[in-house]
Amino acid sequence: MTPRNFLVRGLLAGLIAGILTFAVAYIAGEPSVDAAIQVEAAGEPASHSHEATEHSHEEGAAEHSHDEEGGTVVSRQNQSTWGLLTATVSTGVALGGIVALAAAFALGRIGRLRPSQSTALVAALGFVSVALVPFIKYPATPPAVGDAETIGARTTQYFVMLAISVIAMIAVVLLFRALVGRLGTYTAVLVSAATYLAVVILAAQLMPTVNEIGDFPADTLWYFRRGSLMTLATLWGILGIALTGLIGKLYAEESLTAARKDLAASL
Length: 267
Description:
Number of strands: 3
Strand content: under 5%
Distance between the termini: 26 Å
Order of helices and strands: HEEEHHHHH
Number of helices: 6
C-alpha cells in the first residue's frame, strides 16, 4: 500500500472518470451551452458579455466559432467534442492523482478503516469541500451571463470560498481525530459535521453575493447549472468508485500474498 501504487491507480481511475464525465457533460451540459450562445448571439441580454471569451456567429449557420485573445479560431463543433473530451480527461487524471495521494496519506489516520473505506471517505469529503460547497455559493454561469469587468473579482471570490471550504474540512477531520477517543465515533462525527457546516455557512453569508444574471432566461440558466452539477458529481462519483475498487483489489492481493508468506513460513 505505497503512495506510488495509490498514485498509479488514481491516474487510472481519473482517466475512467474523465471519459465518462465527457459523456455526461456532452449530453447534459452542451445543449444548454448552445442555448446560451444563441441568447448571446441574439443580444438577449445585450448588456451582458461572455466571461473571458468572445463568440462570433455567422447568420443562419448551425455552428459557432470561438475567438481567443490570440486570434485562434476554434469551431463550436470541436469545442463541444474534442475540446470537451480533452478537458474532462485531463481534469480527471489530475484530480485522480491528487485524490489518490490524499487517500494514501489518510490511510491509517482516520479511525480503523480499511484502505478501500478510507479511500471512499476521502473522495466523498473531497467532493463536498472542493466541488459542492463552492458551487452552492458561486454556481457556474453560461455564456452571456456576467459582466466582463468583474471576472477577476468573481474568480477571486470563488477561490477564496474554495480555500475556506477545504481548510475547514481538513480542520474538522483533525477535530474528529481528537474527539473520537473521548466521545465515540457517532458523537465525534456529529460534532465535526456540525462544525464544518457552521464554518462554511458563516463564510457563505459573509462572502459577497454575485447577481449579474439580468434578464437571462431562467430555464436556460437552470439547465446549465443542473448540467454543470451533474458533470461535477459524475467526475467525483466515478473517480471515487473506481479508485475505491482498485485500492480494495490491491489490498486484497497484498493480504493474500502476506497470508501465503506466513503459511509458507509456518511450514
